[in-house]
Amino acid sequence: MEIIQVKNLSHIYKSSSGDKVALDGVSFSIADGEFVAIIGTNGSGKSTLAKHFNALLLPTDGKIFVDGLDTSDEKNLWHVRENVGMVFQNPDSEIVAAIVEDDVAFGLENLGIAPEKIRERVDLALDDVNMSDYKNFAPSKLSGGQKQRIAIAGVIAMQTKIIVFDEPTAMLDPQGRREVLEMVKRLHAQGKTIIYITHFMEEAAAAQRVFVMEGGRIILDGTPREIFTNVKEMKRLGFDVPVAVEIAERLRRKGFKLPQKILTAEELSEALR
Question: pTM for this structure?
Fold first, then answer.
C-alpha cells in the first residue's frame, strides 16, 4: 500500500533577485513501511522535498498525498502533521525545553494528549533511544549524539507513521552517526516508514531504496546495490560510493576476481576470504 504519492511536484522560491526552481516535476510513490534514502549534492532539492512531506512547504505546482491526504488542502494540515514526524540536522534548533523529558513531551502537549498518556509515551520513547537515565538532565549538558536522540524520542512519542530525517548525522562525530543510524534501523524494523536524507553513502546503503537527486529532479531510483555498484555512473555524477564498493573496484582493477555487486564490508570480507 502506498503511504506517500508525489505527482508532478514543483516548488519555486520567489525573491527580488529572481525565481529559483528547487523542485521540477518530481513524481514517485513510497510504500507503507518502506525505508528510502535520498542523496544529492547541495542545492539538488533534497531538503525542499523533505519539507513537503509534512506541509512545511506547499507545492507551487503538482500534488503530494500523505496517507491519502492532499497536503495542499488546509483542512488536512493537522492530520498530515500527525502522520509525519521530522528530525533535522541540528538538534540544538529542535530542542525547546530546559529539561529532557519536558522536551520530549512538548509535541504531545501541543496535540492535547492526556497528561497520564504523555508520561507513558515519554518514558517509552526515552527508553527506545536509550536515554531514560538522562530524563532530568538539561539538554545543554548532553553531547551532539545524545541531543539528536532526544529529538528522535520526541518524534517517537508522537507515534507518527512516517519519520523524515533531513541529514540527522551531518553535525555528529562517527560514533554519534552510528548510534543514530542504528536507531533509524530499529524504527524501520518496528514498521515505520523512513525517509532518510544524507551525504554519507554508507548510511544510504542501509536503506531499501535510494533516490539520487540533481537539479530538482530524481535522476536515479533503485536499490542500494543497483545504485552504488554502478561506480562509473556515480563518479560521473560527482558522488562517492560506500567504502567497501570503492575497495572492491580498486581490487578488481589490480586483477582480483571479485563479484560485481559487492556493497558491504561483510560481503567484501567474505569474497576475499
Answer: 0.92
